[in-house]
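Shift notes (night). Ran Ketose-bisphosphate aldolase while the centrifuge was going.
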Amino acid sequence: MLISMKEMLAPTREHRYAIGAFNVADSCFIRAVVEEAEATHTPAIISIHPSELEFVTDEFFGYVRERTLKSKVPFTIHLDHGASIAQVLRAIQCGFTSVMIDGSLLPYEENVALTKEVVKLAHAVGVSVEGELGTIGDTGTSVEGGVSKVIYTEPAQAEDFVQRTGVDTLAVAIGTAHGIYPKDMKPELQMHILRDIAQRTTIPLVLHGGSANPDAEIAEAVTLGVGKINISSDMKFAYFAKLREILARETWWDPNVIYPDAIAAAKEVIRYKMNLFGGLGKASLYR
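Came back to this:
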């Protein structure tokens, strides 16, 4: 079942759970996300960064759409951190059911104008839109990047942004960062900001940089209105750690022998996150 992000996140606030948006980079990660979602009857978001889309190419999503359309579990295919209208249009043409337009580094009024234009284009063809206010930190361990100093989302501005743009969901900055935190870097999530934003808005909120944050804070964020949490680094770290372990001791070269254990390692992380977010087994809400 392939649905829009608006449909996917509609029940999350009422039922107090969030859905994992897992960044995929090839068919192995697609298998990890889709198979684990089906095994646990859990809705999931397949998230693609523009650099990942460039790597896998447009044609890859013919396979992804067919695989998810035939599933009994709900999936959304989402463009993560789209930086331009051209990138958004490309994703829509590839069959994505949700797009993000990230104007967070633009002056506020320019962010509003760009997001509003994308909303108009995407909604015309039934595609959901995620906007962003504030900035996500950079741990230096992810190709997604970020900024050295987080600009927290201003709650009153978030309320204005949602009303003026018509976005379906909003990514907020409360102190998370892309990547795995180095040992000397500890996240400082500002839950009071999230609480204020949630009280001023009714749409589901999004946390980017969901990897490596304290479980207790992530679980609390879900109770405060976060309906989508992005996971990339935690899943990929487990996958590639297992690959390095295998390749260090074996001389195999066949993908069907090398990759299964790495996919299994990624699945363990995916299931853990689904359970942490409270979404495990929630596919029944969409029938």
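The chain is about 45% helix and 15% strand. The mean pLDDT is 91.
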